[in-house]
């Protein structure tokens, strides 16, 4: 698993912070020690729970985008709509 980490010097030490979750951090005398401490913290937390990916559907109509892309009925429906539109545009 690869995660984004911010490493910053802090008053003679280094702090490695898991981006997006600032309470998950590691502190060390060097950059590498801080990263190793963060890795240990993430490992400990992952052993206490489960890492999962969750899809959140956006509000509004965006969740419909592409949903019917492979539905053959959609093509027929579009063609009928275009036929009716073209018929209305004819003088």
Please explain how this structure is put together.
- The protein has 91 residues and is an alpha+beta fold.
- The chain has a domain at 5-48.
- The protein is 40% helix and 18% strand.
- It is built from two helices and three strands.
- A three-stranded antiparallel β-sheet has the order 1-2-3.
- The longest helix has 18 residues, at 31-48.
Largest sheet: 3 strands, antiparallel
Provide the spatial order of strands within the biggest beta sheet: 1-2-3
Output the structural class. alpha+beta
Strand content: 15-25%
N-to-C order of helices and strands: EEEHH
Total strands: the figure is: 3
Judging from the principal axes of the Cα atoms, what is the shape?
A: rod-shaped
Task: Estimate the mean pLDDT confidence.
Answer: 89
| Radius of gyration computed on alpha carbons | 26 Å
Low-confidence stretches: none
Query: What's the multimeric state?
Result: single chain
